[in-house]
Amino acid sequence: MSIHPHHQPAPTPEQLQQQLAEAGLRATRQRLLILESLLVLPGHPTAEQVHQRVTGQLPSVSLGTVYKALDSFVAAGLTRRVASAEGSRRRYDADCTEHHHLVCADTQEIIDYCDPQLDELIRGFFAAKGLPGFQAHSFSLHVTGSRVADPPTADSAQQSA
């Protein structure tokens, strides 16, 4: 089980060009900046956050261009759309590995969560139940809640005694 932040160092222009080429997309300056922004912005950014970062480097890029590029990245498998706690804003996740999302209803923060045991339980559940007329390829659990203070562990209780 692990909770991990979504923040990476800036990829090189060559790495960005390679990702776009492998996805079958042309490496335009706009797409390169949008993909880079998506990869380096913390958390699960909105199109508006990506647009704000991109226009700092290329002011002529419209919000519509950002949405179109992000949609093409989703279609090509470079990113995923993530439901947000507020529901109305699309957020994006550049991490396409299997993981789940914990959404804080208070702060709107989306936290990546990995747990192979949970994944196995979900696979087993659907294998046992079956899905008539449907073949599942992947899954992502979305859990909404609130952050709470970490409970003291036995070790920390002994240290404070």
UniProtKB/TrEMBL annotation:
GO BP of this protein: negative regulation of DNA-templated transcription; regulation of secondary metabolite biosynthetic process
Cofactor dependence: Zn(2+)
Family membership noted in the UniProt record: Belongs to the Fur family.
Cofactor note: Binds 1 zinc ion per subunit.
Residues bound to Zn(2+): 104
Residue span of region Disordered: 1-20
A GO molecular-function annotation: transcription cis-regulatory region binding
Gene3D superfamilies documented for this protein: 3.30.1490.190, Winged helix-like DNA-binding domain superfamily/Winged helix DNA-binding domain
Coiled coil regions, renumbered to chain: none
Matches recorded under Pfam families: FUR
SUPFAM superfamilies from the UniProt entry: Winged helix' DNA-binding domain
Organism, as annotated: Hymenobacter actinosclerus
UniProt entry tagged with the keyword Lyase: no
Protein name (Swiss-Prot/TrEMBL): Fur family transcriptional regulator, peroxide stress response regulator
UniProt keyword list: DNA-binding, Metal-binding, Repressor, Transcription, Transcription regulation, Zinc
